[in-house]
Specification:
By secondary structure, this protein is an alpha+beta fold. About 30% of the residues lie in helices and about 10% in strands. The chain contains six helices and five strands. It has a five-stranded mixed beta sheet, sandwiched between helices. A hairpin with a 2-residue loop joins strand 1 and strand 2. It is globular and about 45 Å long. The termini are far apart. The C terminus is likely disordered.
Length: about 200
Amino acid sequence: MIELKVNGHSHNVSADPETPLLYVLRDDLQLNAAKFGCGLGQCGSCTVLVDGAPTLSCVTPIMLLEGRQITTLEGLGSLEEPGPLQRAFIEEQAAQCGYCIPGMMMRAQALLQRNPRASDAEIRAHLEPNLCRCGTHMRILRAVRRAATLIAGPGSSPGTPGTHAASAAGPQLDASDTDSDAQGDARSRPAHSEKRERPER
């Protein structure tokens, strides 16, 4: 029996200690936000937070997690009372198929908890490990920027002194960015999208 602390609640789990956390979340705890993507820790769809750090739950056995704080998307808010990041993704309509979005949101949450005034370059670099093939990259970036404003409070602005240089993760975005940019201009995509081919229709 292993005790897992998930979203502020303790759960006694009788699964094999080597069972990946993702399966316990979905099959035992009915927390279905984290998705099975590749099963190899390469796509980010299964990302959750462990002690505030983004963690790939499909390759993390539960025996490593006893006594640690696990947070899933369900822990950020509810349908009736969404948290700032959830509100921002809804308002920006940042999902298309939506399969990658929970992992994107959890990785973004880790960044904004550490630095709610993260620059565009930091956001791009931090989301780089999570893959999305639908083409809503610009909406995702706008949603994270909106969430940063909601978390930091009125009058705040991203990219305060002390953030990483923009050159480390690509060009800055501005208000003129549109969804068509994500499909037509490779220079304005997050770094990971430049490495992926379009899926054939």
